[in-house]
UniProtKB/TrEMBL annotation:
The lineage of its organism: Bacteria, Bacillati, Actinomycetota, Actinomycetes, Micrococcales. The chain crosses the membrane at residues 68-88, 94-111, 186-211. This is Uncharacterized protein. Residues 234-247 have a biased composition (Acidic residues). Keywords: Membrane, Transmembrane, Transmembrane helix. Residues 225-247 are annotated as: Disordered.
Length: 449
């Protein structure tokens, strides 16, 4: 039976209507220009949103030979790896099995690299085919649905039908995202690293504790795709957090939260329709930290147009979520450092954070899809960009409990400002964590160079 599954599946941004299967079929791989949305009264897609996820149909477009080579290489390397362990266990000459380990790892890495190249070619072909089909088929389809209408009216009617909303805007295509290219490079690097680990560990004949890690490496080789990467087609891994920044000693890591549940429980609880990014920061130490965030006017910019610093309290073993609203196309964490000032609390300002069950403020859109509770924050001083921190004893998507959340908001001295916290409707689950106000910098910091 012919498989009608399209090569790419459209990932609908939060708040958008779902396009029809006919629209998805004709617009395979097409990504809208920054800020475009089907109708005016919905928010734009979050920055760095992945509009398309590959299906098994895209992977089947890769030639069979490109899929077989990394599997064969991995099988040779792992079988030789087992031979090294067995020979070492019985006191035999384990070094004799190292030659096939070397050959297998080489074939494994080369095969993974070629698979990534073929997958990129298949993705490019899908986009090109869809572009040709739109140019040749779309006018005829619109005319067939709206006979007698002039071409412009027929096209507008087809757009409205495709999005199931009246007055849908014509699609404006932007440049393809670079996430696929970055993922393919990461795929080859990870595969090479895993294969190198097999080789090095086999040579040192101390492999028994690492057998589970090698089995995981075999799983990577079976598809040539890193499990949990944006290009994985298994489960809900397409929404997994993406690595953003890691300290030199590995004690602090920052992740960009890509999942819908995390978005709804963080960014969707902030007011307005500006861009928003949520970052999770995990630390092996407890300290007052300064987080450096760069904001980029365009996704193509190599350096940020402005840089801000946030003072937060990080706790060992407790994830901290930093919620950043911005008018730029995107943001990025450039550094997270424990404060070295004589007074690490110098940025803290006097403020109260009290539950506000009777708030008159308009509840944000996220409160309609996830639990939330409002807190009224009153500051003793003005702050254009205050960091308001809470400890939350509830889960938000993949973010465990307890976790800290920091929301950036302007404060006016003596005037209450409502801040919404997601994951619970009980104020007793939320503990105020203080408010800080730190002056930012306006030039492009070396942390983002």
């Amino acid at each position: 039976m012919h498989d009608a599954t399209p090569p790419l599946r459209f990932r609908t941004p939060p708040g958008w209507p779902t396009p029809s299967s006919e629209w998805v079929d004709l617009f395979q791989g097409a990504e809208p220009d920054a800020g475009w949305r089907p109708i005016e009264d919905i928010p734009p897609a979050p920055s760095r949103w992945r509009f398309w996820a590959p299906t098994r149909a895209l992977h089947r477009r890769v030639p069979r030979a490109a899929r077989v080579v990394p599997v064969v290489g991995a099988a040779i390397a792992l079988a030789s790896f087992v031979a090294v362990v067995v020979l070492w266990a019985v006191g035999g000459p384990a070094v004799l099995a190292l030659a096939p380990v070397v050959a297998g790892t080489a074939l494994w890495v080369i095969g993974a690299s070629r698979y990534a190249d073929r997958l990129a070619e298949a993705l490019h072909a899908v986009r090109a085919e869809a572009s040709v089909r739109r140019a040749t088929e779309l006018p005829a389809r619109a005319a067939a649905v709206f006979p007698g209408a002039d071409p412009a009216d027929a096209s507008a009617g087809w757009d409205a039908r495709g999005w199931a909303v009246p007055g849908a805007r014509p699609f404006v295509a932007g440049p393809p995202s670079r996430s696929g290219t970055r993922t393919q490079r990461a795929l080859v690097a990870v595969t090479a690293g895993v294969a190198g680990l097999v080789l090095a560990t086999g040579a040192s004949v101390s492999l028994l504790p690492l057998v589970p890690a090698v089995e995981e490496g075999a799983a990577r080789a079976l598809t040539g795709v890193e499990p949990g990467s944006p290009w994985s087609v298994e489960g809900d891994d397409e929404d997994a957090a993406q690595p953003e920044w890691t300290s030199d000693d590995g004690s602090i890591e920052a992740w960009w939260l890509a999942g819908d549940d995390e978005w709804e429980g963080t960014c969707d609880l902030t007011p307005g329709d500006a861009g928003c990014d949520a970052y999770e920061i995990d630390s092996d130490r407890t300290c007052t930290a300064v987080v450096t965030v760069g904001f980029f006017a365009s996704l193509d910019d190599a350096r940020p147009s402005r840089v801000e610093e946030r003072t937060v309290s990080i706790t060992e073993g407790v994830p901290l979520v930093l919620v950043e609203n911005h008018d730029e196309d995107t943001s990025s964490i450039g550094d997270v450092s424990c404060a070295s000032d004589d007074d690490p609390h110098a940025d803290r300002i006097a403020a109260t954070q009290g539950a506000d069950a009777d708030t008159d403020a308009e509840r944000p859109a996220g409160c309609a899809t996830t639990d939330c509770v409002a807190f009224a924050v009153r500051s003793s001083t003005d702050c254009a960009d205050a960091a308001v921190q809470f400890r939350v004893g509830a889960e938000v998507g993949s973010i465990g409990a307890p976790h800290d959340v920091v929301v950036m908001t302007p404060l006016l001295a003596g005037q209450p400002t409502d801040v919404f916290v997601g994951g619970t409707t009980y104020a007793s689950d939320v503990t105020p964590g203080g408010v800080t106000c730190r002056a930012g910098t306006e030039d492009d910091s070396a942390a983002h160079a």
